């Protein structure tokens, strides 16, 4: 019997003992605390290839794996904070290296919470504007960009050099004026 076949029979035996949900919960709990999935599989007596294939066979298992990764990312982010908070003066370079690495890994595992990806806000089927009580629409109504009539832009030779920046700003403001409804603007 090869390692893969033996791994499948050990996985089947685990599932018979603990049930599919029990095996999944055990594996995901260990991933969530940061244990290496390969080590988890080997400790269960199977190659990582077998365990990973089993996880990928059902979308529900993959969702659990994604949740475990997000939990691990949370732990990494807090570990990065702990590294910086608890380091002494001599340990600052090492603590910084660890903190940056933990933050980077957390950002890769959970891009929405710790990374660069932004998540669209939807609360119980509401759009962002509905959730904010129409604030976004009101703001867009109060401040709108109005294109000005087509004008010829003077050649650079026509603009005195000391006023060149002011002239360019003036031209931009004439071409794209921002109109603000003054009835709701408070005097400062």
Annotation keywords:
188 residues; mainly alpha; Arc Repressor Mutant, subunit A; 2 domains; two-stranded antiparallel sheet; 62% helix
Give a description of the structure.
The chain is built from 8 helices and 2 strands. It has helices at residues 3-32, 37-43, 48-56, 59-86, 92-109, 128-131, 135-142, 164-175; strands at 143-145, 178-180. It is elongated. It has 188 residues and is mainly α. Residues 119-123 and 146-150 have low confidence and may be disordered. A two-stranded antiparallel sheet has the order 1-2. It has 2 domains: 3-109, Homeodomain-like (Arc Repressor Mutant, subunit A), CATH 1.10.10; 134-184, no CATH class. Helix 1 (3-32) crosses helix 3 and helix 4 (59-86) runs antiparallel to helix 5 (92-109).
In what range is the share of β-strand residues?
under 5%
Q: Numbering strands along the chain, what is their spatial order in the largest sheet? A: 1-2
- The CATH first-level class of the largest domain comes to Mainly Alpha
Number of domains: 2
* Unreliable stretches covering 5 or more consecutive residues: 119-123, 146-150
With helices defined by DSSP (H or I, 4 residues minimum), what is the helix count? Answer: 8
C-alpha geometry: elongated
Radius of gyration: 29 Å
Biggest sheet layout: 2 strands, antiparallel
Task: Name the helix and strand elements from N-terminus to C-terminus, one letter apiece.
Answer: HHHHHHHEHE
CATH topology of the largest domain: Arc Repressor Mutant, subunit A
Distance between the termini: 82 Å
CATH superfamily of the largest domain: Homeodomain-like
- Integer average pLDDT: 74
* Annotated CATH architecture of the largest domain: Orthogonal Bundle
The chain-level structural class is mainly alpha
């Amino acid at each position: 019997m090869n390692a893969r076949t033996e791994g499948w029979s050990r996985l089947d035996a685990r599932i018979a003992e603990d049930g599919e949900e029990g095996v999944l919960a055990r594996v995901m709990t260990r991933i969530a605390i940061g244990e290496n999935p390969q080590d988890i599989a080997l400790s269960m007596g199977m190659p990582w290839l077998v365990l990973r294939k089993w996880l990928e066979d059902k979308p529900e298992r993959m969702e659990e794996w994604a949740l475990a990764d997000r939990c691990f990312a949370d732990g990494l982010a807090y570990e990065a904070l702990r590294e910086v908070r608890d380091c002494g003066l001599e340990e600052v370079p090492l603590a910084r290296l660890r903190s940056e690495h933990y933050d980077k890994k957390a950002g890769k595992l959970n891009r929405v919470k710790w990374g660069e990806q932004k998540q669209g806000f939807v609360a119980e089927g509401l759009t962002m504007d509905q959730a904010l009580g129409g604030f976004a629409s009101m703001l867009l109504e109060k401040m709108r960009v109005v294109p000005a009539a087509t004008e010829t832009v003077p050649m650079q030779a026509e603009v005195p050099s000391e006023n060149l920046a002011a002239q360019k700003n003036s031209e931009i403001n004439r071409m794209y004026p921002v109109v603000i409804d003054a009835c709701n603007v408070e005097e400062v």
